[in-house]
């Protein structure tokens, strides 16, 4: 006759509990990775926000400076600046005082201002040639001889 021997059966509880513990550990690591990535993304978002605010501030400053520069370039402002610095000047007359240059660096032909400039230089040269030579810088005092 056969004896009833206890049959050793592997319980499935231990296998299921190992799988369950592995799932808990894996989910814990996934949660830690998620938190670290979330913290990095939050820090990057804050840096981007600061950079955008700085960019907007610099853009406003640039617009303000462009506006003030445009205001300084108006004819009234230029005249005030010239007067403030003691200069007796005005804007150039387009027909007489503006000389258009070619790419070679010479005045464009047919301009009346170039002809007037050459005539003035010629008259100045003639005036210089017709004047007497200058005396030395020493002045003599009128003295009465006795």
Structural class: mainly alpha
Q: What is the helical fraction, as a range of percent? A: 55-70%
Mean pLDDT: 80
- Please compute the radius of gyration using only Cα atoms: 47 Å
- Distance N terminus to C terminus? 179 Å
In DSSP terms (H or I, runs of 4 or more residues), the helix count works out at: 3
The amount of beta strand, in percent, is under 5%
Spans where pLDDT lies below 50 across 5 or more residues:
none
What oligomerization state is this entry in?
A: single chain
How many E strands?
Answer: 0
The major pleated sheet works out as: none
Helices and strands, in order, run as HHH
**Shape descriptor:** rod-shaped
How does this model look, in words?
The chain has a domain at 13-89. The chain contains three helices and no strands. The chain has helices at residues 12-72, 75-84, 112-130. The radius of gyration is 47 Å and the shape is rod-shaped. The model has no long low-confidence stretch (mean pLDDT 80).
Summary?
The protein is mainly α and 146 residues long.
Which terms summarize this structure?
146 residues; mainly alpha; 3 helices; rod-shaped
Write the layout of secondary structure elements.
Blueprint: H1 12-72, H2 75-84, H3 112-130
């Amino acid at each position: 006759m056969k004896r009833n021997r206890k049959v050793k059966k592997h319980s499935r509880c231990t296998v299921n509990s190992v799988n369950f513990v592995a799932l808990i550990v894996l989910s814990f690591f996934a949660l830690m990775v998620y938190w670290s990535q979330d913290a990095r993304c939050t820090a990057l978002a804050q840096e981007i926000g600061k950079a955008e605010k700085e960019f907007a501030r610099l853009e406003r400053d640039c617009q303000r400076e462009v506006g003030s520069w445009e205001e300084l370039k108006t004819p009234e402002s230029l005249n005030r600046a010239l007067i403030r610095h003691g200069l007796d000047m005005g804007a150039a007359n387009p027909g007489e005082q503006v000389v258009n240059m070619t790419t070679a660096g010479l005045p464009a032909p047919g301009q009346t201002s170039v002809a007037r400039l050459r005539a003035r230089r010629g008259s100045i040269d003639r005036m210089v040639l017709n004047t007497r030579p200058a005396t030395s810088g020493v002045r003599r005092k009128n003295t009465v001889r006795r």
